[in-house]
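Saturday, quiet lab. Running sequence design on the structure tokens for the scaffold JK sent over.
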């Protein structure tokens, strides 16, 4: 039985270098902290999210009625689970497990469509998604595989009578967001979920949003607790929708791409028998240790050496030999690859088994 409620933050501990959680290091940026500090002065008033809703709508060039602010992407999944009555819900795995957990918690049966390596959607519509699925959930780019599906392949899953939920929590880490569906007002039943957690370092604030047709937004809003998005969260939503913030996110996404390339090159050179899921596009990579290496052991030894990485075995479709590693600056990931190499070598030396 897989613990769908296990998340990367459970892997970190004082003294460990955090490669388990995918929040941009050094965040929130100074200018955003200042705005959030100032927002404390207004905390006596109940939140008014109208300006934030308008700002997010303008950022995505959609009417405000097609935007619902949420307490993180996580709340969006709960609202969907509470408001919808799916007869056949299909979650495409491996992916972030909270959508399935929320659906199950609301009493819905969930079918898993488990993609195999290299975890890409093929065909349009994907032949494995049952025709009569009236709720389909997938992530793009996908956590933990880092696969970015082509917008067309995702869009092809939309149809009348089906709600198609696309979790774009990491899309703002992809330069230019080429495969986003946020602007696709023409697709029936499309719900795009976005998060401000990762790029802006706001995991503790709880702010995200969803984009959908106005009727769906109204339905989901009806399931939302009153004042679920706080005044500081609304301030963040305005600030992170500005042109300046978008430019900062874009610059960071380009830096991530360069750092990821460095990590991939380093892994290919020094740990050639670890497989990396090809063409990663999110700020993390998913790697698979060689079959014969006990993955749990390696992860524990990495911890002993000071590294927290995200275990793969709590994602449907993966197992203990899979590790998700956050992209960081090359000096950090270079040291990580050194530790990984040492651990694989030491394991070989102590067991006498050829582990790599
Ligand atoms: C793919 C994905 N979607 C959504 C979320 C939810 O993030 P939040 O609720 O902080 O916006 C996460 C958090 O880990 C995630 O990894």
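Result came back. Writing it out in full:
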């Amino acid at each position: 039985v897989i613990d769908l409620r296990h998340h990367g933050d459970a892997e970190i501990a004082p003294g460990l270098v955090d490669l388990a959680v995918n929040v941009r290091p050094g965040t929130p940026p100074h200018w955003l902290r200042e705005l959030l500090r100032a927002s404390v002065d207004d905390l006596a008033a109940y939140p008014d999210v109208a300006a934030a809703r308008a700002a997010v709508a303008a950022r995505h060039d959609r009417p405000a009625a097609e935007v619902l602010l949420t307490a993180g992407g996580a709340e969006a999944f709960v609202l969907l689970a509470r408001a919808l009555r799916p007869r056949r819900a299909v979650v495409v795995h491996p992916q972030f497990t909270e959508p399935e957990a929320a659906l199950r918690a609301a009493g819905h049966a969930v079918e898993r469509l488990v993609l195999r390596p290299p975890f890409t959607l093929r065909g349009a519509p994907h032949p494995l998604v049952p025709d009569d699925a009236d709720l389909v959930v997938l992530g793009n780019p996908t956590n933990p595989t880092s696969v970015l599906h082509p917008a067309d392949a995702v869009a092809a899953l939309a149809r009348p009578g089906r709600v198609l939920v696309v979790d774009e929590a990491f899309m703002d880490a992809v330069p230019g967001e080429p495969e986003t569906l946020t602007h696709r007002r023409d697709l029936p039943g499309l719900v795009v979920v976005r998060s401000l957690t990762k790029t802006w370092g706001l995991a503790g604030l709880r702010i995200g949003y969803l984009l959908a047709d106005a009727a769906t937004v109204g339905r989901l809003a009806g399931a939302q607790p009153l004042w679920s998005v706080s005044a500081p969260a609304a301030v963040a939503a305005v600030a992170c929708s500005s042109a300046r913030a978008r430019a900062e996110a874009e610059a960071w996404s380009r830096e991530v791409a360069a750092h990821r390339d460095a990590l991939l090159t380093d892994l290919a050179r020094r740990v050639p028998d670890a497989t990396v899921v090809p063409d990663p596009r999110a700020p993390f990579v998913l790697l698979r240790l060689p079959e014969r290496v006990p993955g749990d052991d390696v992860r524990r030894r990495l911890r002993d050496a000071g590294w927290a990485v995200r275990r793969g075995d709590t994602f449907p479709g993966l197992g203990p030999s899979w590790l998700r590693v956050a992209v960081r600056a090359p000096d950090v990931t270079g040291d990580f690859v050194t530790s990984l190499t040492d651990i694989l070598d030491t394991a070989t030396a102590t067991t006498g088994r050829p582990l790599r």
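Notes for JK: The pocket of pyridoxal-5'-phosphate is lined by residues 72-74, 96, 139, 143, 167, 169, 195, 197, 203, 208 (CB under 6 Å). The first strand starts at residue 17 and ends at 19. Ask whether to fix the surface positions before the next round.
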